[in-house]
Design a protein that fits this description.
elongated; 3-stranded antiparallel beta sheet; mainly alpha; 4 helices
Amino acid sequence: MMDMSSSSAMPMTMVFTTSTTTPLFSLAWTPATTGQYAGTCVFLISLAVVYRLLFAAKYLLEQRWRDAAVNRRHVAVAGKQSEAKRISTSSDSSKALLVTENGVEEEVRVVVSTKRPLTPWRISTEAPRAGIAVLIAGIGYLLMLGVMTMNVGYFMSVLGGTALGELAVGRYLQSFEH
């Protein structure tokens, strides 16, 4: 059995500190001067703003993808009687004209979904969604590590950056929960 009193590990500090030489992310990023410390705080502010911007970008992209799925049109060209007959009996279809590349007008039916569809898997949607999710998670973890240094300046920088980001793009996130 290991005796905890003879442990050579340093105790974990559980109080906030105001040191200007607190390392951030690694020992290689240890500010040596007050200017370097201020630069590190500006970096954390910027990172927190980018974090909020990514949430807004994700929300706007999700809206665009959802609208594209709802407004995806299914066109039936005249002459395909079986499909045209099926579409013409549909109650949610409308009649329109479509000009083809030859300039000939053809009778078509345009069907727009009125319900929220369960969109099919598409690489053009899922790859950017996954990429943004990874960026959001990565930046969130970096901000968490900055706060976990228990440095007051780093903590206030993360809070300040979050406030600035929310002031800048918070209106886009009114109905988006993360």
